[in-house]
Amino acid sequence: MEVFYPKYYETFSCIAAECPDSCCKEWSVDVDPQAAAFYRQLSGDLGDRLREVLQDTEDGTIMTIENGRCPMWRADGLCRIQAELGHDALCKVCREFPRLTHDYGDFIELGLELSCPEAARIILSGTGNTILSRFVPGGEEPEYDSSAMAILKRTRAEFFTFLETTLLPFPKILTTFLLYAHSVQEELDGGEKAVLLPEVSVSGVSAAKDLRPLQDFFLSLEILTPQWKTMLEAPTVTPYWKNGHKSLLHYFVLRYWLQAVSDYDIVCRAKFVVAACLLIGGLGGDLVETAQLFSKEIENDPDNVEAILDGAYSHPALTDIQLLQLLQN
Ligand code: SF4
Q: Domain range for residue 269?
């Protein structure tokens, strides 16, 4: 079975105590049943403490947060479980974060989560977007629709080639991307083969500068940190597009494009990507920090992702016209 991964995947290494944010802050960690059972039978101080902080909810067991931190977090930035019992004793989420695995049965895609500051730095440096692959034993008969997957793989590769070589300004790249997604949707729905038109001009769409409707939409979602709320409430700046934005787009497309095989809906994912790029560009600040915070608030919260994918068809801030207007500047 073939395993695909961006080159930057191999360069990641946790910076632990040097981390400006830490994955041990603000989130309550989902603890898998195997780890929860192991933790609960431990003896000594660590076992007592774990029994105190593990909490069963209707969605499974979580590690509760105390004073905004995971209770296993030590002042030196290390995890108490890892320090006392070793890396293998960590629960699945903590063992794997920020590594992502999408197992499609007959192939696997690996990636990194933008919500980790060190991963965000590597991803947005733009030096490791090349997709590599290796063979591993195993694999099984896939359950996905193979003709839909073939379309999605081909069109994603075509878009990546365009992204790598284009000299168009970033708003035009996003415009091309959104219109291409509509063309791919047509092919997925049984229509003509998708066409990528890089120089496409959108007639009859006036320019809009105000990101307020988009910010208000994100303000209506679940919010984890006061910092994110403050950013969304502040007036936006005119997006200043830097080189890192192309890597940001590459990251989102790599992560979400093939997932359309589950429901044949590429347009809602493309709108998610365009809205994310517009918001991150419009909120300003350091690109790595803003993108990392976006990911922590949105990508790591399945309810928020779901709300955006649903809103793609019903919310006025996410209509094609609204997004295209914001890209006309
Ligand atoms: S967020 Fe990333 S760099 Fe920071 S502690 Fe977690 S894995 Fe390490």
A: 146-326
Ligand 1: distance of its center to the CA of 34 in Å?
23
Kindly give the interhelix angle for 244-256 and 287-294, rounded to the nearest 10 degrees. 20
Q: Clarify whether residues 192 and 291 are in a common domain.
A: yes
Q: Name the residue type at position 54.
A: L
pLDDT digits (tens, 9 = 90+) for 246-285: 999 999 999 999 999 999 999 999 999 999 999 999 998 9
pLDDT at 297: 96
CB of 98 closer than 6 angstroms to any ligand 1 atom: yes
Ligand 1 contact via 113 beta carbon (within 6 Å): no
Residue 28 lies in a domain: yes
- What pTM does this model have? 0.92
- Pocket of ligand 1 contains residue 16 by CB under 6 Å: yes
258: in domain? yes
